[in-house]
Amino acid sequence: MPELPEVETTRRGLESLVVGKSIADLTIREPRLRWPVAPDLRARLLGHRIAALRRRGKYLLMDFTGGSLLVHLGMSGTLRYLPEAAAPRAHDHVDFHLAPEGWLRFNDPRRFGSLQYCADPAQHRLLRHLGPEPLDAGFDADYLVSACRGRRVAIKQHLMNGTIVAGIGNIYANEALFLAGIRPRRQAGRIGRERLAVLVTAIKSVLNDALGHGGTTLRDFVGGDGRPGYFKLSLNVYDRPEEPCPRCAHPIRKQVVGQRASYYCPRCQR
Fold it and tell me: Is 269 domain-assigned?
């Protein structure tokens, strides 16, 4: 699933190509996404100018006067810019024809993504309960200590709860916990302030590193310009069961935490 770095990479790649342009037409080939595309979406967007392209957690926000299009890429979706018209391929479900030129194409093989128009994104049911952005100053040791106090849930599961912090997915939770030396199943409320401060730094470091590499391509992800992300080459533990730990050479272990695959080093993480 595209996580925060992949969505932000898409946003950055598209921003200069689409902001300031207008929607000249909208072609919906397949409306049956995770939530059906509204029948009036074309009428709502036609002729309107894209004022900004933002991100909140794992969601893209395409801002227009009077409302925003909330875009979620689902498990394997992409939003790509095309300088010229091109015949649609399999799973190319929606095309945005831009004026004066260009196209945006939404591709989603599994149809777990969504396109939803809303007047006020901050009040949308998918966004209004999200926690702070992990790269913002408000996500600091004081905040995480408060958010973990008294909680018995596994720290990895806690980090992936969007109401605690927005957008940290499975890949980056694994990698940040490795850097911080914390086991994925450690109870959130039993981790001391000093270690949580290290974890905050690790989260920011992992996410910024991933952004510098254009995200992580495990199978499907490409950015808005169609290029894959290369952070996979820098992964320390994720999807590396039984391979040697890059710190101590002990075999990396795999376990399930909160129904998600988790990877850790039993020597370096406690």
Answer: no
Average pLDDT over the chain, rounded to whole?
Answer: 92
The rounded distance, in Å, linking the Cα atoms of 234 and 236 is 6
The reported pLDDT for the residue numbered 141 is: 98
Q: What CATH number does the domain containing 257 carry?
A: 1.10.8.50
Provide the β-strand partners of residue 96.
26, 104
Residue 107's domain comprises 4-123
Element at 256 (helix H, strand E): strand 253-257
pLDDT per residue as tens digits for the range 21-54? 999 999 999 999 999 999 999 999 999 999 999 9
CA distance 68 to 64: 6
Tell whether 209 is covered by a domain: yes
Residue 135 lies inside a defined structural domain of this protein: no
Domain count, the chain: 2
Query: Over 90: is that where the pLDDT of 220 sits?
Result: no
Residues 150 and 256 placed together within one structural domain of the fold: yes
| pTM for this predicted structure | 0.89
Cα(55)–Cα(160) distance, rounded to whole angstroms?
A: 17
Active site residues: 2-3, 58, 260
Distance CA 242, CA 240 (A): 6
